[in-house]
Recover the amino acids of this structure.
C-alpha cells in the first residue's frame, strides 16, 4: 500500500504522519504538496493535522480549494481511500466528502490533552480490528472539534454506522462528561457512506511511538494495514 | 460597472455560539445586564466588476455558497451598492 501525505501551508502534523507510516510501519510514502495536480500513484491519501491557511475564514475552508483537492475528490469518488486527521477532517467536511461540520468547542477553549475513544463498530478499515470493548487513549488538540450535523443527516450517519470512533470515559462508557468539546452523540470521527473516506479529530500519529509512552494510536494504523493488505 | 458587496455571515440561530455566550456574560459583569443573546458572526466586504447588478448579485451568491459561508452552520445576507 502506497500512502500519500499532503502538506498544506500551515499543516504541522505531516512529518509525524510520514514518520509513523514510513519509518515505524515500513510503508512507501509519497510527500505531496497542496499545489500538485498529481497523487504520484498513492493509493491511500492522508490529510494531516495543523492550521491550513491559518484557519482563516473557517478551519479547512480555504485548503478545500487547494489545487490537489481536485485529484483527492476524484480519487475518493473512484473508491480510493482518504483519511483526514484533525484539520484534515475539517477539510474533508468542507469538501463534502464527509458529512457534517466541526464547530468551535462548546467551552471556546483550545484543547490539548489525551481523550479516551472507542470504536463504534468494526465496519470500516479504520476500526475493523479494534474491539468495540477496547478503550484507546489518543491525544486531541483542537479549538474547532464539536461535530455537528443537521438532525436528518445525523440520523442517516447513525443508521449507516458511519460513526467510526466516539469519545468515552476510561471504562468505555459514552457519557456527557467524557465528551471533550460538545460533539453531537460524542462523535470523534466519521466515514462516508462508501467507507473509503474517514475523518477524526484525535491524533493517532501522536500515540504510535513507544518512545512517547503511548502506542494506542498504532492500533488504528494496524487496523488499516491489516485490512488493506489482507 | 463596479459594485461593492457588504456581506454578513452569522452562525445559525439553532446553534450554540460559544463566543457570543462568553461576551454575553462579560457584558453582565460590566453591569450591562439589560443586554442578552449576543451572537457573533463575520462581516466581509468585497468589490465586483460586472456588467449589471443582476450578474454582480449572482457572483456574490456563488462566492457565499462556495466558500464564504458554510450553510450547515452559517447563514448569510448581503447588500450590493454600485461604486464609481
Amino acid at each position: 500500500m502506497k500512502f500519500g501525505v499532503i502538506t498544506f501551508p500551515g499543516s504541522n502534523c505531516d512529518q509525524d504522519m510520514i514518520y509513523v507510516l514510513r519509518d515505524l510501519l515500513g510503508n512507501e510514502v509519497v510527500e505531496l504538496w497542496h499545489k500538485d495536480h498529481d497523487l504520484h500513484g498513492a493509493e491511500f491519501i492522508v490529510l494531516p493535522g495543523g492550521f491550513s491557511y491559518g484557519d482563516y475564514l473557517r478551519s479547512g475552508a480555504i485548503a478545500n480549494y487547494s489545487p490537489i483537492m481536485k485529484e483527492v475528490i476524484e480519487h475518493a469518488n473512484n473508491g480510493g481511500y482518504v483519511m483526514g486527521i484533525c484539520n484534515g477532517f475539517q477539510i474533508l467536511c468542507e469538501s463534502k466528502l464527509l458529512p457534517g461540520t466541526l464547530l468551535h468547542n462548546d467551552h471556546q477553549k483550545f484543547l490539548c490533552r489525551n481523550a479516551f475513544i472507542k470504536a463504534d463498530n468494526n465496519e470500516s478499515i479504520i476500526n475493523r480490528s479494534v474491539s468495540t470493548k477496547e478503550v484507546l487513549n489518543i491525544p486531541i488538540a483542537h479549538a474547532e472539534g464539536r461535530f455537528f450535523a443537521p438532525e436528518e443527516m445525523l440520523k442517516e450517519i447513525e443508521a449507516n454506522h458511519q460513526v467510526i470512533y466516539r469519545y468515552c470515559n476510561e471504562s468505555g462508557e459514552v457519557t456527557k462528561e467524557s465528551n471533550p468539546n460538545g460533539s453531537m452523540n460524542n462523535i470523534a470521527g466519521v466515514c462516508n457512506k462508501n467507507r473509503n473516506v474517514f475523518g477524526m479529530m484525535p491524533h493517532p500519529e501522536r500515540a504510535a511511538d513507544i518512545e512517547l509512552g503511548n502506542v494506542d494510536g498504532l492500533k488504528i494504523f494496524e487496523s488499516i494495514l491489516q485490512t488493506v493488505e489482507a | 460597472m463596479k459594485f461593492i458587496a457588504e456581506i454578513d455571515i452569522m452562525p445559525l440561530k439553532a446553534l450554540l455560539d460559544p463566543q457570543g455566550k462568553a461576551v454575553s456574560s462579560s457584558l453582565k459583569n460590566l453591569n450591562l445586564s439589560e443586554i442578552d443573546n449576543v451572537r457573533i458572526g463575520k462581516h466581509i466586504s468585497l468589490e465586483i466588476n460586472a456588467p449589471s447588478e443582476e450578474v454582480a448579485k449572482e457572483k456574490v451568491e456563488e462566492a457565499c455558497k462556495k466558500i464564504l459561508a458554510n450553510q450547515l452552520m452559517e447563514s448569510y445576507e448581503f447588500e450590493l451598492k454600485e461604486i464609481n
Notes: Chain B touches chain A at residues 15-16, 18-19, 21-22, 67-68, 70, 72-73 (CB under 8 Å).
